């Protein structure tokens, strides 16, 4: 391996004036905090350096939010060095060698030089400490994350050509990719995430190793895999990362429903390639987000990607070569709930995504505007707070190349959105309630709390959806007639 001091000196000479300014800006972004820390550690005979993502992002001209530092001091020594200096200290990651602190409003994490490795079937990495910056960098995931800036002097360290790879927008590992992925299989997932997030290409040997070792993701906790998937989906180009996951076999161990959608193609190609269609819907949802000035929306992007995962299970061939996918939205909603639950997504995300998948076909019954106002009310009420996302998902789901058909669908959806808006001016659709509340229902019927009140409430709600606001007197009259009918049936 190259001599670390020689490599660092060589890399220092390669920096352009703009890159030197970026490094200076990185150090300046946290003001005196890192300089003071560097001096504090140096005075105690220890090394300290800014490392990884902050260095990479500064050189790319991206905004730097968090500062990661690395040191030869063990965690207990770090705690001693920052005691009385930091405004706050936390040790939640200390078992992995990390101490967090806050100083003058800046948040910093300091990690002891280390390497992590997984035993064959272990879900938790073994952590060992090192004593040199070079040893720490060689065990990092990719060369673009294996660059550092020493403190307090600001010396740029790049022993593995990360700067050149940054310029080439290329992902390589500092050592053999097989060793890197064996040390931490989650790096396989991080590679495709960086491809989507940064627009980098994965180097050939790295891609080959990721493909061959993708099954090693099985030993990584679902939470860590989920977090990488979330970052991938919220990236500027999620389709790139998703396609890489499928092409390399990573998806088989993370979202196995995705590659299975490629099977939903009949030999005569009488219907769309469901997998490619889903990627296009994801693309179009991202475009609609941007057009509407929205921040990246995880729920919307997950629903766009998964909305048709029920098709392989529901595919049927009928006479004349017709292919059907009856109730695939219901099956898909259940599958989405199961998969996202297995990946430990929060319950609200699981519920919202599965609901959007279940609703994504509802609009296609709208036709040329034949829905009554009550049907439009139900559509909006069933979507509830997800209505704006359902609007985008439904529009993104139109991938036909037939311009006339696409234009007709767009006009129809313009119409339903306008009708919803007009109805919302009359009443708040997502807060529709019967004209009588539970106490008033009991008073009209002369009953106490019980099942009959619940049934009466649902009856009045249907009336409200059908007719709009009725007023209390008319609602009470309808309720009495309903109750009389119930008594005759009983």
TrEMBL record:
GO terms for biological process: tRNA processing. Residues 270-411 form the HD/PDEase domain. Residues 406-433 form a coiled coil. The keyword Transmembrane helix does not apply. GO terms for molecular function: metal ion binding; nucleotide binding; nucleotidyltransferase activity; tRNA binding. Keywords: Coiled coil, Magnesium, Metal-binding, Nucleotide-binding, Nucleotidyltransferase, Transferase, tRNA processing. InterPro entries: Bact_CCA-adding_enz_type3_sf, HD/PDEase_dom, HD_domain, HDIG_dom, NT_sf, PolA_pol_head_dom, PolyA_RNA-bd, tRNA_adenylyltransferase. Its cofactor is Mg(2+). Pfam families: HD, PolyA_pol, PolyA_pol_RNAbd. This is Poly(A) polymerase.
């Amino acid at each position: 391996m190259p001599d670390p001091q020689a490599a660092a000196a060589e890399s220092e000479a390669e920096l352009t004036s703009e890159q030197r300014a970026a490094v200076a800006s990185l150090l300046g972004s946290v003001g005196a905090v890192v300089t003071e820390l560097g001096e504090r550690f140096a005075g105690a005979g220890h090394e300290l350096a800014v490392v990884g993502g902050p260095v990479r992002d500064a050189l790319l001209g991206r905004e730097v939010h968090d500062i990661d530092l690395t040191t030869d001091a063990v965690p207990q020594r770090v705690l001693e060095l920052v005691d009385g200096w930091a405004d706050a200290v936390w040790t939640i990651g200390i078992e992995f060698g990390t101490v967090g602190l806050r100083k003058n409003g800046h948040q910093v994490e300091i990690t002891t030089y280390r390497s992590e490795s997984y035993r064959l079937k272990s879900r938790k990495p073994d952590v060992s400490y090192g004593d040199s910056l070079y040893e720490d960098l060689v065990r990092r995931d990719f060369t673009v994350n294996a660059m550092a800036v020493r403190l307090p002097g600001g010396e740029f360290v790049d022993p593995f050509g990360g700067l050149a790879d940054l310029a080439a927008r290329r992902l390589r590992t500092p050592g053999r990719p097989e060793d890197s992925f064996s040390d931490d299989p989650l790096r396989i997932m991080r590679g495709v995430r960086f491809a989507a997030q940064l627009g980098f290409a994965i180097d050939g040997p790295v891609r080959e190793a990721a493909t061959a070792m993708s099954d090693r993701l099985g030993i990584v906790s679902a939470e860590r895999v989920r977090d990488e998937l979330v970052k991938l989906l919220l990236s500027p180009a999620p389709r790139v990362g998703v396609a890489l996951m499928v092409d390399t076999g990573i998806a088989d161990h993370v979202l196995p429903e995705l590659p299975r959608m490629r099977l939903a193609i009949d030999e005569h190609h009488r219907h769309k390639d469901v997998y490619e269609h889903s990627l296009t819907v994801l693309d179009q949802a991202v475009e609609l987000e941007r057009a509407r000035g929205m921040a990246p929306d995880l729920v919307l992007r997950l629903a766009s990607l998964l909305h048709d995962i029920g098709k392989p299970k529901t595919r049927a061939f009928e006479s004349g070569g017709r292919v059907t996918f009856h109730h695939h939205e219901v099956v898909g909603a259940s599958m989405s709930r199961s998969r996202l639950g297995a990946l430990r997504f929060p319950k609200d995300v699981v519920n919202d995504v599965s609901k959007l998948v279940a609703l994504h076909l509802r609009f296609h019954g709208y036709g040329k505007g034949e829905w009554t106002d009550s049907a439009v009310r139900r559509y909006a009420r069933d979507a509830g707070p997800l209505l704006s996302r359902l609007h985008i998902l439904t529009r993104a789901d139109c991938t036909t190349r037939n311009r006339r058909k696409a234009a007709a669908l767009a006009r129809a959806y313009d119409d339903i959105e306008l009708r919803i808006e007009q109805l919302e001016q009359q009443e708040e659709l997502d807060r529709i309630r019967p004209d009588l509340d539970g106490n008033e229902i009991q008073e009209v019927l002369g009953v106490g709390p019980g099942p009959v009140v619940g049934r009466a409430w649902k009856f009045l709600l249907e009336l409200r959806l059908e007719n709009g606001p009725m007023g209390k007197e008319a609602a009470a009259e309808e309720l009495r007639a309903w109750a009389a009918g119930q008594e005759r049936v009983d």
